[in-house]
Amino acid sequence: MRKVEKIDINKLEDYLWEIPKSFRKDMRVPARILASESLLDGIIEDRSLNQLVNVATLPGIQKASMVMPDVHEGYGFPIGGVAATRYPDGVISPGGIGYDINCGVRLLTSKLQIDDVKVKMEALSKEMYAQIPSGMGKGGQIKLFSDEMEEVLSKGAEWAVENGYGNKEDLEYIESHGKLSYADPSLVSEMAKKRGTDQLGTIGSGNHFVEVDYVEDIYDDEIANAYNLKKGQLVVLIHTGSRGLGHQVATDYIRIMMNVMPKYNIELPDRELACAPFNSEEGQNYFKAMCAAANYAWCNREVISWEVRTAWNNIFGKEGGELKLLYDVAHNIAKIENYLIDAIEQKVIVHRKGATRAFGPGFEELPDAYINAGQPVIIPGSMGTCSYVLAGTTKSKAVTFGSCCHGAGRRLSRRAAKRQVNAPVLKEALKERGIYVEAGSFKGIAEEAPIAYNDVNQVVETVQASGIAKKIAKLRPVAVVKG
Amino acid sequence: MLIDFLSDVLSSSYIENAIYCTVKILEFSDYSIKAEISGIHVEIFDEEIKAVTYHEASIKKNNNKLWETYIIFDI
């Protein structure tokens, strides 16, 4: 199939580009790219736009397949993609959510100022590394019995709170309050449950991390105030997902869907797009299993917060104060949401793979304190650069099915990064800049080196300029724990 | 089927905390494969593989008349 080139792309408005339906005859809708022109020139280099065109062929897809400015090539679906399909007969595709179901981020805020505790940062990073099991194969402190596993899968973050691993106040500050009620644990395979038995409270490897940052800049005083963010304040960013349990759910259902596609007369250009109608038995089973895995991920991030709080307390004692949850948001998930399409309010199944929900002010699920500010959107940068807190806007609902970017976007493959980066040297260089890194392996540091990623600033500037989210605060890392 | 088989081996690796070095195929048909795999227990894995993907998977005979396969792992 022909590679998408710049000549195939029309400019719809500043920061919004379109590959028209006429580009390939199997497209059901156009494909849209939210990006600045310079980011677009980079995006064209890999095959992510051809993947985006493939997504536009999904049965029941609405309006357009879309990618965010941090898009890069994935398996089947591009990472940084959004696809909304018609409810209830459009398809649901496990690949459109990804192997790491409910991979997401949460941000905890503290009352400490970086200038008062700078000398303790190295000790804090070591203590966090001791408290949070990272790397593969190392189990967590919690071993779930089978009835407990059922509860985690049904209740999500609430399970952690009920069992002494979380704070009740946190629940209000989590997307969907940390629990999807459609979850059905009986549709999660035994193999998946076994993989999840001892992984609660673990971050895993890859690009997952726990990071202490300080607020370097505030861009919107009013919203920052609502989010309780102040210049110089220490905050903790947690990035991980549903671990092996989620990977197994995705693997199981991609296999199932591949086998049933002929039954539903679905033909697709890439096997990793495997899907089934949402209202079919297989579609429903996957959705309910995915919700269960998403609940596991929210529980996991709640337990990790408890480990972080333990480390915090061990280092700072009473003076450290309480770590409060600012927000927790998923970036690999499918949700049923309502949108105006062709001037009619319609229900759709929104697939977000490497894209963050970014709802604006007035969204009823938000806690009272944020109702005028909009939903917090947390954008982790790469190790040693910076991260951002944004606020969702009402425009995102009109343009991107209420979605926004999720990070900086990978530029170099892990292998290429390893070739170019000397990890021990990088670790020392970061230390000289006041960033302490603790990792399971040097390899992990090299693969996630800043050089491997796009400039997160450029991605965030694009999002801000396009109006789908607002820049609120910039975070600068001081301590990183990696898998 | 090769990918499904490798997926199961991967799952087993994580459940058993083991890496596998040998495989003995016991039964093989168009739609099923039964095998005995053996390996050693490990404390920790060096690399996390999330999944064995079907993405761009291919299998062909190479110049030495041996079957060669190309499979991408999600890490």
Q: What's the assembly state of these chains?
A: heterodimer
Across the major sheet of chain B, the strand order is: 1-2
Largest sheet of chain B: 2 strands, antiparallel
Proportion in β-strands of chain A = 15-25%
Question: Which sheet architecture does the biggest sheet of chain A show?
Answer: 8 strands, mixed
Which class of secondary structure composition applies to the elements of chain B?
alpha+beta
Distance between the ends of chain A: 38 Å
Mean pLDDT of chain A: 94
Explain this structure to me?
- The complex is a heterodimer of chains A (483) and B (75).
- Chain A has 483 residues and is of the alpha+beta class.
- Helix content of chain A is 31%, strand content 25%.
- Chain A contains 15 helices and 19 strands.
- Chain A has helices at residues 37-43, 48-55, 114-117, 121-131, 146-155, 157-162, 190-196, 221-226, 243-260, 281-316, 395-399, 414-420, 423-432, 442-447, 456-466; strands at 10-13, 16-19, 31-34, 65-72, 79-86, 91-92, 104-113, 209-218, 233-240, 276-277, 324-330, 332-341, 344-353, 356-357, 376-379, 387-392, 403-404, 436-439, 469-482.
- In chain A, strands 7, 8, 9, 11, 15, 16, 18 and 19 form an 8-stranded mixed sheet that branches.
- The longest helix of chain A has 36 residues, at 281-316.
- Chain A starts with 9 loop residues before the first strand and ends with a strand.
- In chain A, 61% of the residues are buried.
- With 75 residues, chain B is of the alpha+beta class.
- Chain B has one domain (2-74).
- In chain B, 20% of the residues lie in helices and 43% in strands.
- Chain B has 1 helix and 6 strands.
- Chain B has one helix spanning 2-16; strands at 18-28, 33-41, 51-52, 58-61, 67-70, 73-74.
- In chain B, the strands form 3 sheets. A two-stranded antiparallel sheet of chain B has the order 1-2. In chain B, strands 3-6 form a two-stranded antiparallel ribbon.
- Chain B is globular, with a radius of gyration of 14 Å.
- Classes of the chains: A alpha+beta (483), B alpha+beta (75).
- The interface between A and B is medium-sized, with 31 and 23 residues.
